[in-house]
Amino acid sequence: QVQLVESGGGLVQAGGSLRLSCAASGRTISSYVMGWFRQALGKEREFVAAITWSSDSAYYADSVKGRFTISRDNARNTVYLQMNSLKPEDTAVYYCEVAGYWGQGTQVTVSS
Fold it and tell me: Three-state DSSP class for 93?
């Protein structure tokens, strides 16, 4: 069993930045790929970014490439999502996922 808790969401103006964190507990997650997804109101959940256990590879949705950076700290069982140059279309609930477990999500709202 893995518990995931996201934090760092909030309200920000377009062009601003936020850093999301996802802390895992209950089991070590250092050997797993960790990912971020988001779901805007009325839309399906979509992939945002993922990172391998060793941090040697990261993957991004085209819509966030060059603006978002995923990273992880296996010693802290935590994955991060640095979001820069935010746009109103980035508004969504952001979820982290690992080994099939999901967090409760954190709301990100970008005002124009």
Answer: strand
Helix or strand or coil: residue 91? coil
Residues 6+ apart with CB under 8 A from 73: 79, 80
> How does pLDDT run across 70-80, given as a tens digit for each residue?
999 988 989 99
CB 11 within 8 A of CB 81: no
Give dist(CA 26, CA 42) in Å, integer.
32
* 102-111 pLDDT, tens digit each: 999 999 999 9
* Secondary structure string (H, E, C) spanning 22-81: EEEECCCCCCCCEEEEEECCCCCCEEEEEECCCCCCEEECCCCCCCEEEEEEHHHCEEEE
Which region, left, alpha or beta, applies to residue 108 given φ > 0 means left and ψ of -120 to 50 means alpha? beta
Q: Give the pair of three-digit tokens for residue 36.
A: 């971020």
